[in-house]
Amino acid sequence: MNIAFCTCVTSDYLGFAQATFQSLNHTLKEEASYISLVVDDNYDSSKYEGFEILDLDKIDLKKYGEELLKVKEESLSSRFRWMLKPILLQHLLKRFDAVFWVDPDLYFFNDISSITQKLESFDVVLSPHWRSFDPYVNQNAFFNYFYHGLFNGGFIGVNKNALAVLESWLSMMYWKLENSRELGLLDDQGYLGLFPLMSEKSHIIKDRGYNLAAWNKQECKRTLVDGKVLINGEHTVKFIHFVPDTIKNILNGKDKLLRPHLRKYLKHMLEIEPGMSQLRSYDVNLIKRKTRKALPLKATTYP
Amino acid sequence: MERESEHLYATIVDTKETSLLKDLSSSISSIYPNARLHVLLLGASGRQIRKLSKDTKAATFYSPNAIVPFYKYLILKLRLLFSSSRAIKGVFKPYFLLSLIQKQRKGVILIDPDLKIKEPISKMVNLLSVYDAVLFPNRFPMNPKISEEGFIKNFKRGFYTSSLIGFSKNAESVLKWWAMVCSYRCKDDKKRSLYYEQSYLNFIPVIFDKVKVMSSKFHVITDDNSDYLVSDDKNEVVAESTLI
Description:
The structure holds two protein chains of two kinds. Chain A is an alpha/beta fold. In chain A, 33% of the residues lie in helices and 19% in strands. Chain A has ten helices and 14 strands. Chain A has a seven-stranded mixed beta sheet with strand order 3-2-1-4-7-6-10, sandwiched between helices. In chain A, helix 1 (14-27) crosses helix 9 and helix 3 runs antiparallel to helix 6. The longest helix of chain A is centred in the first third of the chain and has 15 residues, at 78-92. The relative contact order of chain A is 0.13. Residues 294-303 of chain A have low confidence and may be disordered. Chain B has helices spanning 21-31, 46-55, 64-67, 70-79, 85-104, 121-127, 148-157, 172-184, 204-207, and strands spanning 7-14, 37-42, 59-62, 107-111, 115-117, 133-135, 164-167, 188-189, 194-195, 211-213, 218-221, 236-241. Chain B starts with 6 loop residues before the first strand and ends with a strand. The model of chain B has no long low-confidence stretch (mean pLDDT 91). Classes of the chains: A alpha/beta, B alpha/beta. Chains A and B meet through helix 5, helix 6 and helix 7 of A and helix 7, helix 8 and helix 9 of B.
């Protein structure tokens, strides 16, 4: 089975894509291809390595109708990029047996081939958010499922049998692509809950080491066992979703067991983008200050 | 075909719905001749329960305070003080099923009283030897262009029907979780797209391992989804509401 991992970014986030792909390449115990679709052309391809950069003009957007082109013309907003998710997956399934969408703020720490291999027998792989399942413990987190959906849009796997599911996903996005609390829709993500109904061969990841983030500290307890961080005392850390809140939690000590993982991530990011200019959605100075001691700021070869 | 004694058949009714029990009971016994229907009767006095037990020989009746510990029953009663009868029925579904599993150590199939079950149900019942929970999708439309109202129901009503569900004797943890969330909130909360006990079923395949979602060819026709289901030679009707 030939596998690809893909994402879609604006050119100023290509460094993030590189970090994600290199972390995968370093940990994955099987061959895979890495592809980032880029929606603008303000980049220097010689700056990036280890993955294929796919220009938007390589995808025939016309066949997806006027509406998509209209969204594109309006802006290169996230809305447009979300719509490109199923389109890119469909496009790559012409070349690969199985394709995983990975958000460019994911960073991998251990092998995930047990999940990639699922696409030999399943058509879809979905990653739950792992917010609290107990409203008595955390009401807000629990009812967030009703607003944000059951599955995280940052990590999705599909094989060639899922083409119809991807087509339906895109048509749902054409219908409504918004944050509707009343309907429980968060952009493209809320629709993922319907995937197991559309494809009987949907695999839901149960390993709590996947998709660690600020929102799943309760369901995915970080524990230290013999000096190793394990989730719920049994699962190794597969990947972390480094959204700003995840980073803030780690830095302010609310999620301190993941600090070595953040150091590794930031070190890698610094090698790719020494100015860290792209990590601008949170306090860069704070990150630098908090990590300076443990983080050799001189570039080293990764890994 | 699976032996009837391996599983229990259960339903929940209030005093206004007891007339439905005869049809439900006979539809079950047409497939499993020796099956006994276990009925949780809400809002009935001891005398009413005794009378119904006498009149309906193929059923065993339970009152709510007999299926949960006394203190929990009081807490539930307080929580449900201003709730609709739909909500009360919803909350008691997982509690009733849990109590049956714990006391009888058998799997249980919950059937809403207005449903008439048909032979293909045996396919679901047989799966309970492998899976802890078997769910039927509501089968609301997947294409908003075909029916926007129907498509939205996926989110407003939940993906799976709570009118017909199967649990194996090993499903205690599933039922405990369902009971816990239902006891927290069980209502038609439009702002949250929460629909009584039914929306919580969306979580079961996510949280628990041995869960089977029945394939699209098996239909449970309720008054909620009957407008959207297309009759087809390939489809098998497992249960149909007698109220449509």
